[in-house]
Design brief:
globular; mainly alpha; 2 strands
């Protein structure tokens, strides 16, 4: 199961991380997280890089 710490760690290490924008300004959020990425639909990474980045973190 994915937790908030994993979402934050993956986003911080992801080269594809792209913060969501709203009305030409960044959304208010508490930090870098997949939850705030334009490629994340709320349940999964739509460009399928989450697992690759997470596995890379596990190996370091």
């Amino acid at each position: 199961m994915i937790n908030k710490e994993q979402l934050m760690a993956v986003a911080a290490s992801c080269s594809e991380y792209s913060p969501k924008k709203n009305d030409n300004s960044f959304l208010n959020y508490s930090g870098v997280s997949c939850e705030n990425c334009s490629h994340y639909d709320g349940n999964r990474c739509m460009i399928n890089v989450y697992d690759k980045v997470l596995n890379g973190l596990d190996q370091s």
